[in-house]
Specification:
The structure holds two protein chains of two kinds. Chain A is an alpha/beta fold. Chain A has two domains: about 210 residues, P-loop containing nucleotide triphosphate hydrolases (Rossmann fold, 3-Layer(aba) Sandwich); about 60 residues, Alpha-Beta Plaits, CATH 3.30.70.100. Helix content of chain A is about 40%, strand content about 25%. A six-stranded mixed sheet of chain A has the order 6-7-8-3-9-10, with helices on both faces. The termini of chain B are far apart. Chain B has one domain. Classes of the chains: A alpha/beta, B mainly alpha. At the A-B interface, α2, α3, α4, α5 and α6 of A face α1, α6 and α7 of B.
Chain lengths: ~300, ~300
């Protein structure tokens, strides 16, 4: 599968300071999370991909198109929701979104239609004739999302989309991002320092630290892998249960008091564990998938880069 | 859209031409200007001098009308509709356009900068040059409608009424009208955009624009008085514009002398105008960026 974004030795400098350092990697996900602590270069990477900053060295490709040579064409394929406030206060919601859609190349009538649709879609349909300057913070975030998707881009950049939102508004925003991810032929790149947001939406993450790539991780693969690891708590004769499970072809480790960890091969279903337990009159009281949380992945990546830097 | 149909749909329709897309900025800029009713009223009033000018030309050429009105004493005659008449008319219209642009022009860029909308605009297939061009065209069209278009209409009205080859003997004036007007459009447009790019608050940008045109002459006069020279006029862009116009409309040297319009040479006046435009473009280039870069 062709990568959505390909970083090819991308380096960005502000004066003598290197903000992004020789980034290399490929991102294929439908929804990609861009993670990193504050100042790690997340927004700079987004802005460089948008053509706001010229690369000092190397380049990046989006859908196979070079950002150095196809910047204008790419900006037509991208929707962008910036982190900070970005709106024109004296325009009504519908006019604002229509204006942005027209600038992306939609004819006027289509842009109007899409503006109405996008505003209804994000939940601002009832207030679309109010001036954007009068919207609340949450509504402004939704208006920014509406303008980013109104022209039907192939890739949307969302820079800290849940910034400043209260819990219900955040849930709504996350829900919308998931729907966008699942509904159309659109890829999403979310830049955030909130791991939970990324964990709930993304299937791939790229982690930045100090302008370097600390890690690229396919969360879907990671989750699939985690599906093989089970933590069990049983009541009854656990050693015979463990023997039976091992005979089935699983790796098994006992931790006493009926607690055990099991690694399931691809061919074995959980149902078979229940059958063994029933045959031996064992109660399975608890069964958890071991879950390598995004936080674990993030911390591991940070530690690895830290250790690498320390060893230099 | 019905609520039950609410779902995201990708767009699969046509798109507009890349080349002319910056005109969207112009269209929205215009609509923003004319959202203000007082501004629309003032714009309509700016045509009053044109109607008066047209009436004067008609009056000057119509002996019947003069007889009907039983006019006694000297009135305008056909000979008075000359280069002075068109220079005066263009000068008046230019002042009106200046006031209108000072009033509403700065909002063109200031509104985009005030709430950080520039990244949204430049994140689309629009370059910075196209952005400036799109906004500049708003001012250029507005000032054109007030200045050179009515002046040319009066010119052709007079040519039609005067007959006898008047148009051919005054053909040079067409170029003068166009050149003088476009020079004015460039100055007013670029200064208005630069002022609004540097001051996000529209009122402050208008004040800065006024200050540029009226504080500069003060400094120039002070320099002239202190150093006993005329080069201080270089700081007075309005003086430079007048000087160039006097040349373009072939006002005799003796008349220009009495109007104190020979303080600096013509090339210096052109330099002053070019420097004003260049400085404005430099400021726009510095300010109109999708993202500020903090170098370190």
């Amino acid at each position: 599968m062709a990568p959505v974004i390909e970083l090819d030795g991308l380096e960005v400098r502000f004066g003598v300071r290197s903000v992004l350092k020789q980034l290399k990697g490929q991102l294929h996900g439908r929804c990609i999370g861009l993670l990193g602590p504050n100042g790690s270069g997340k927004s700079t990477l987004l802005n460089t991909l948008l053509g706001f900053y010229p690369p000092a060295q190397g380049t990046a490709r989006i859908f196979g198109k070079d950002i150095r040579t196809h910047s204008r064409e790419l900006r037509g394929l991208i929707g962008y929701m910036p982190e900070s406030d970005a709106f024109i206060s004296n325009l009504t919601g519908v006019r604002f979104v229509r204006y942005m859609a027209e600038l992306s190349g939609l004819p006027s009538t289509h842009a109007l239609e899409r503006a109405h649709e996008a505003l209804f879609y994000v939940g601002l349909g009832e207030v679309r004739y109010r001036k954007v300057g009068t919207y609340s913070l949450g509504m402004k975030q939704l208006a920014k999302l509406a303008q980013a998707i109104a022209h039907g881009p192939r890739l949307v950049f969302l820079d800290e989309p849940t910034n400043g939102l209260d819990p219900p508004a955040r849930n709504r925003m996350i829900q919308l991002i998931r729907e966008i991810r699942d509904a159309g032929n659109m890829h999403v790149l979310i830049s955030s320092h909130l791991l939970r947001d990324v964990d709930e939406c993304c299937d791939e993450v790229i982690i930045l630290r100090d302008g370097n790539i600390a890690g690229i991780c396919n969360l879907e693969d990671e989750r699939r892998l985690n599906r093989k690891f089970l933590e069990l708590e049983t009541h009854g004769e656990d050693s015979s249960f463990a023997d039976a499970v091992q005979q089935l072809g699983c790796e098994c480790a006992l931790f006493g008091k009926g607690r055990m960890k099991v690694v399931l091969p691809e061919t074995i279903e959980i149902r078979e564990l229940y059958q063994i337990a029933a045959q031996r009159d064992i109660q399975i009281r608890r069964m958890n998938y071991r879950r390598d949380s995004l936080e674990d992945i993030f911390l591991k990546a940070m530690q690895e880069v830290g250790a690498r830097n320390g060893s230099l | 859209m019905a609520v039950y149909k609410r779902s995201y749909k990708p767009y699969e329709g046509d798109t507009t031409s890349n080349r002319w897309r910056f005109l969207v900025l112009t269209r929205y800029g215009f609509s923003g200007l004319f959202d203000s009713r007082p501004f629309t009223g003032a714009f309509v009033l700016s045509f009053v001098p044109f109607l008066i000018g047209a009436a004067m030309i008609y009056f000057a050429h119509s002996a019947t009308l003069r007889a009907l009105l039983q006019l006694r004493g000297p009135g305008p005659d056909a000979g008075q509709i000359n280069n002075y008449f068109f220079l005066a008319f263009l000068g008046m219209q230019s002042w009106i356009s200046f006031l209108l642009i000072t009033w509403q022009g700065p909002q063109l860029v200031a509104m985009d900068l005030a709430n950080n909308a520039l990244p949204l605009i430049l994140g689309r297939p629009i370059s910075r040059t196209e952005y400036v061009l799109g906004k500049f065209l708003v001012i250029a069209s507005l000032v054109s409608v007030i200045t050179w278009i009515p002046t040319l209409l009066l010119f052709f009205l007079n040519a039609g009424m005067a007959g006898n080859g008047w148009i051919w003997s005054h053909f040079w004036m067409l170029g003068s009208i166009l050149l003088a007007s476009w020079m004015w459009i460039a100055i007013v447009g670029l200064v208005a955009l630069a002022a609004s790019a540097w001051l996000k608050w529209r009122v402050a940008a208008s004040a800065l624009m006024l200050a540029f045109f009226f504080v500069g002459p003060g400094f120039g006069t002070a320099i002239n008085a202190t150093l006993g020279t005329n080069w201080g006029h270089m700081l007075d862009v309005l003086y430079a514009v007048k000087l160039i116009w006097v040349g373009l409309f072939r006002v005799p040297v003796s008349t220009a002398e009495t109007l104190n319009m020979l303080g600096i040479p013509l090339w210096a006046a052109w330099c002053s105008v070019a420097a004003t435009c260049g400085l404005s473009l430099f400021l726009l280039n510095r300010r109109l960026k999708a993202r500020e870069v903090v170098r370190g």
